[in-house]
């Protein structure tokens, strides 16, 4: 990408706050309740395990993103390591993972606003015509705010992120000071639903959905002047800071619950309407000022996440287009270096998600799996590039420790997250990926474009990888037959993951095409 028109105006702090801004959205408003319903007080363990799982991926991407600091980098990595077909398949997964987030945040804001204007939402919690119009207007606003230069977008995000950090911290302090009952942590047992409840909470309650916000810094890697210092700081710092924040929120939530709320068990926890757990607790504790602040934050936090995800979704589209997987028109930029055609496509794609949708919980479980699939290939890429681009030939500005163990562990854990999400989620996302791939290949055949140019052999590992992951998850807990338990399913995931790593290394080209280095 010599002479890339994207501006290098993103500093270390801006990238850190971009990732934090992606992590603190609607997830903090609902995650504590959903995790407690699934795992009871052991939700604290789920947050720790979720943070460790994402930290493994974050370390992988700290090396990759500093080695190849490019916009939409997550598309560039499989392209470099395995060629066009592998990159094209992963591009579809990434596009889906990014394009859906901003609409979800718009839906979250609209749903909260329905407490004031009930006409926005139907009794079944889907949007009415006026609610749909409001969500579309919010999507348009997210897009308009992204038309400014990246430094302006990040400056706005910095201001908003300061608020988004302050309100959860204030919530923790206010709840802990008003009511904190240690007995709640052993009510019905610390882990009433066992290990199954903990691992289900990691995928299904919004934990992974929240932590995957670290990827914002990666997608903006091509717009920082000093990636070797800025990216590890932003990627790892955002995961560590948000892990502490979310653990505090979960502990404050559990400790503040009234005894009556637990009379029917953790799974029966509920709050009226869609007021959210923290606003409901604040009202019950006679803290009207906190409840009012939380209602305001219900608009600002999701809006901040929606804006920053719109920013990075456009960079993913830009990268896909630069790789030749979309028309070159989507590489166009404004005089401020903003990829406007990509922003417009991101907005239009997002509109497709603003139809009546399932619950927030099911939706984030689906998107968590898509996001992990998109980023779960990073350990495979790193494992291969350590062999095909040795350090003697290509020095690493940031070097992953003990990669022979860390990269496989990160890959296994990312696949386990998909497995823990369950058969229902797997049967939603894998057919979409298959359909997109088949449509792309059919288009190439119809337009007489040679398949050989895509280097299909080097992408062969994706077939057993995605196929086995789908099959094992479809046969695991939550499926109709469920012959696999959590233990046997996890063992199968580990074995197939290691086999995939070996196959991917075997079919990878010996001389990966890194392309020209981006201009300084």
Structure description:
With about 525 residues, this protein is mainly alpha-helical. It has a domain at about 10-365: Up-down Bundle (Amino acid/polyamine transporter I), CATH 1.20.1740. The protein has 21 helices and no strands. The model has no long low-confidence stretch (mean pLDDT about 80).
Shape: globular
Number of strands: 0
Sheet-strand content, in percent, reads under 5%
Give the radius of gyration: 22 Å
Main beta-sheet strand count, sense and barrel state:
none
The CATH topology of the domain at 12-367 is Amino acid/polyamine transporter I
Query: Architecture of the domain at 12-367 in CATH?
Result: Up-down Bundle
Helix content: 55-70%
Question: Counting H and I runs of at least 4 residues, what is the number of helices?
Answer: 21
Instruction: Name the poorly predicted regions.
Output: none
Report the CATH superfamily of the domain at 12-367.
Amino acid/polyamine transporter I
- Estimate the mean pLDDT confidence: 82
Distance between the termini: 11 Å
Q: Which structural class best describes the helix and strand composition?
A: mainly alpha
Write the H/E string, N to C: HHHHHHHHHHHHHHHHHHHHH
Q: What is the gist of this entry?
A:
With 520 residues, this protein is mainly alpha-helical. The chain has helices at 12-23, 26-39, 43-67, 73-82, 84-99, 101-113, 129-145, 150-178, 194-204, 207-211, 215-219, 227-256, 277-284, 288-322, 340-351, 360-376, 378-388, 403-421, 423-446, 462-474, 486-507.
């Amino acid at each position: 990408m010599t002479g890339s028109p994207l501006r290098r105006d993103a500093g270390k702090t801006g990238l850190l706050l971009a990732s934090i801004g992606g992590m603190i959205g609607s997830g903090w408003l609902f995650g504590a309740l959903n995790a407690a319903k699934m795992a009871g007080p052991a939700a604290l363990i789920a947050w720790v395990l979720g943070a460790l799982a994402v930290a493994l991926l974050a370390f992988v991407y700290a090396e990759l993103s500093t080695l190849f600091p490019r916009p939409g980098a997550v598309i560039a990595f499989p392209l470099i390591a395995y060629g066009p077909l592998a990159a094209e398949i992963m591009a579809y997964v990434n596009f889906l993972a990014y394009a859906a987030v901003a609409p979800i945040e718009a839906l979250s804001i609209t749903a909260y606003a329905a407490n004031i204007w009930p006409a926005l939402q139907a009794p079944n919690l889907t949007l009415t015509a006026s609610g749909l119009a409001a969500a579309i207007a919010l999507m348009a606003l997210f897009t308009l705010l992204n038309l400014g230069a990246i430094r302006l977008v990040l400056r706005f995000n910095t201001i908003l992120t300061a608020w988004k950090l302050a309100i959860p911290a204030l919530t923790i302090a206010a709840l802990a000071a008003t009511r904190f009952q240690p007995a709640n942590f052993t009510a019905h047992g610390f882990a009433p639903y066992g290990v199954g409840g903990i691992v289900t909470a990691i995928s299904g309650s919004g934990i992974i959905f929240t932590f995957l916000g670290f990827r914002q810094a990666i997608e903006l890697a091509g717009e920082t002047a000093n990636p070797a210092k800025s990216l590890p700081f932003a990627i790892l710092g955002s995961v560590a800071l948000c892990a502490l924040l979310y653990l505090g929120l979960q502990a404050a939530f559990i400790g503040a619950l009234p005894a009556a709320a637990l009379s029917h068990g953790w799974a029966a926890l509920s709050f009226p309407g869609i007021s959210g757990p923290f606003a409901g607790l604040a009202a019950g504790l006679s803290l009207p000022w906190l409840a009012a602040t939380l209602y305001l934050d219900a608009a600002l936090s999701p809006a901040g996440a929606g804006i920053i995800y719109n920013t990075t979704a456009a960079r993913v589209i830009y990268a896909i287009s630069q790789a030749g997987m979309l028309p070159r028109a989507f590489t166009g930029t404004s005089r401020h270096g903003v990829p406007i055609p990509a922003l417009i496509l991101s907005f239009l794609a997002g509109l497709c998600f603003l139809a009546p949708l399932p619950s927030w919980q099911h939706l984030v479980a689906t998107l968590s799996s898509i996001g992990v699939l998109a980023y779960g290939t990073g350990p495979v890429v790193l494992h291969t590039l350590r062999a095909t681009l040795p350090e003697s030939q290509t020095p690493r500005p940031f070097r992953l420790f003990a990669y022979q163990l860390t990269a496989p562990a990160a890959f296994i854990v990312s696949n386990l997250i998909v497995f823990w999400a369950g058969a229902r989620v797997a049967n939603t996302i894998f057919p979409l990926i298959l359909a997109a791939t088949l449509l792309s290949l059919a288009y190439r055949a119809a337009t007489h474009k040679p398949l050989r140019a895509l280097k299909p052999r080097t992408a062969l590992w994706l077939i057993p990888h995605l196929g086995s992951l789908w099959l094992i998850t479809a046969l695991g807990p939550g499926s109709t037959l469920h012959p696999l338990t959590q233990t046997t399913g996890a063992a199968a995931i580990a074995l197939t993951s290691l086999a995939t790593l070996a196959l991917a290394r075997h079919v990878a080209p010996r001389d990966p095409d890194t392309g020209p280095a981006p201009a300084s």
